Structures are given as C-alpha cells and as structure tokens.
Automatic annotation (TrEMBL):
The lineage of its organism: Eukaryota, Viridiplantae, Streptophyta, Embryophyta, Tracheophyta. The keyword tRNA-binding does not apply. This is 1-acylglycerol-3-phosphate O-acyltransferase. Residues 149-190 form the Acyltransferase C-terminal domain. Pfam families: Acyltransf_C. The keyword ATP-binding does not apply. Belongs to the 1-acyl-sn-glycerol-3-phosphate acyltransferase family. One of its GO terms (biological process) is CDP-diacylglycerol biosynthetic process. It comes from Artemisia annua (Sweet wormwood). It comes from the Eukaryota. Pathway: Lipid metabolism; Phospholipid metabolism; CDP-diacylglycerol biosynthesis; CDP-diacylglycerol from sn-glycerol 3-phosphate: step 2/3. It catalyses: a 1-acyl-sn-glycero-3-phosphate + an acyl-CoA = a 1,2-diacyl-sn-glycero-3-phosphate + CoA. Its EC number is 2.3.1.51. CDD domains: LPLAT_LCLAT1-like.
Amino acid sequence: MEVNSNGPETRVLTPLRLLRGILGFMSVERKWEVDESSMRQMLSSFNFPKYEDSLWLAVFPEGTDFTEQKCIRSQKFASEKGLPILHNILLPKTKGFAACLEELRGSLDAVDITIGYKNRCPTFFDNACGVSPSVTPTDGGLGHGKRTRKATVNVIPTSEEMVGSWLMETFSKKDQMLSDFHLRGCFHNQGTEGDLPMIPCLVKVFGQIRKTHNIIA
C-alpha cells in the first residue's frame, strides 16, 4: 500500500506513481472514510479467477516507517486508548487489515514475517546498492534475523473488532520477539539463510513475468 501525504487535491502522476499503479500498489490517504471505497474496489478486483495461484498481497499494518518520534506518538495514543504499548514497532492500523481479510479471505493464507536488524534498518540507498542484510554489523553491514510464521486465515476471527484484537495481540508478540532479538542478537530457534541459486531464481522470475503478461493480455 502506498500512502499519499499530499492529499488528493495535489496528487501528481509521477513515473514512480505510475509504476506503483502498474504493479498493483494501493494509494491511501490514511483516512478510512476516504480510503475504504477505493481500497475495497481494488481488493475485489484481486478476488478474480485470473489471479488464481498468483496473488501475493503484502500488507504493512503500521502504515508508515518507524522513527523515535512516531513511536512516542504511537505509545501516547496506546496509553490513551488502553492498547498495548509497543517499543520496537508502531501500533497496527486495524481497519485496512480487516478489509483485506473480508474481501480476500477465501483467496489466501496469511504469512507473518518479523525482521530484526542488529545494527540499523536499511535505507533506500542500501536497497538500491544491494547492501546485503545478512552481513554482520562488525563487517560494516546491517546484520539481521527473520522469523516467519504461517497463520491460517481460518484461525483469524471474522468480525472487524475481533480481527483488530487478533492483530494487536500479534503485534504485541512481535514487539516482545524484537526486544529479545536486540538482547540476544538473534531470534529464538532462528535458522541460517543461505544464498539463493541464481539460475533457478531467474527461471522463476521470467516464468512469473510470462504468467503476468498472459493475465494482462
């Protein structure tokens, strides 16, 4: 999901925005009364036979990047509303997540991914230059760990209120995992990631591009 901070009146069609539209990014205003209609319309377009076995929906419920100031505001809001006070991540936005489940519940399963960085989070420049997050901080890299958990959609509640409670509980656990990660330098039972083989990866990438071309055509 792409967040537009300029508002609908000043939105400009830039090459990056055009590319995001082609790739299926959802542009949001962070105002549910504005976003709900367009978000549900786009989600319903994903729930279509042509996307069978080819739909991956990446959702970042926090809605923005993590900074110290945003964390303080998030903690203040949590304290006022009686919600969990998180230290390593921000409170998740529950309405958009609930809408995704409501529209696509029969089309996907949920995979919960938590990534911890030992040194610092990667910047856009790091990603553009291909800085490997697996390099240890002592070697000048980022150093990271990752925990992946599959959460079958059937175990996630159906009502918006219960979905919100489930998401808050999940983020509380993620926050505790990240606190443990920063103390220990790794996640509990964290495995070691190896390098991906180039040729099989390229075959899969070009196969997916061809499949996407056939879907669009």
